[in-house]
Amino acid sequence: MPLSISILVPIYKVEPYLQRCIDSVLSQDFTDYELILVDDGSPDRCPQIADEAAQKDARIKVVHKENGGLPSARLAGFQIAQGEYVVFLDSDDWLLPGALRSLYDYIQKGYDIVKTRPC
Questions:
Q1: Could you say which DSSP state residue 96 is in?
Q2: Please, are residues 9 and 21 in contact by the beta-carbon 8 Å criterion?
Q3: Starting at the edge strand that comes first in sequence, how are the strands of the sheet with 83-88 ordered?
Q4: Mind listing the pLDDT tens digit for each residue in 32-75?
Q5: H or E element that contains 10
Q6: Distances (CA, A) of 78 to 5, 31, 61, 75, 84
Q7: Which of 23, 61, 77, 111 sits CB 3.0–4.6 Å from 8 for a disulfide?
Q8: Cβ count within 10 A of residue 58
């Protein structure tokens, strides 16, 4: 059975924010997801942070690629995504508690597209 959600996070020069982003996903009460971290050739410690997170949690996948920009990074993550639904999360953002469950509940009510807004 496929996963419910694939969360795609493109990564480039966001070392101060990346761990918070990862932790916000891992702390969700909805757990039927995979977190795909796409290192877009980041020159800082982001690749190591992503690899360390993947070693600690089997739901995390890491893609390392040459820098190609945001669309290229999202495509690289999308190509390996196994979830029925896709969530795009910027690497300098984070999810509030309960966010994935809320999004998924709206999908289950029949909405075709579910969008969030900044707080």
A1: P
A2: yes
A3: 60-64, 33-39, 3-11, 83-88
A4: 999 999 999 999 999 999 999 999 999 999 999 999 999 999 99
A5: strand 3-11
A6: 12, 19, 12, 5, 11
A7: 77
A8: 8
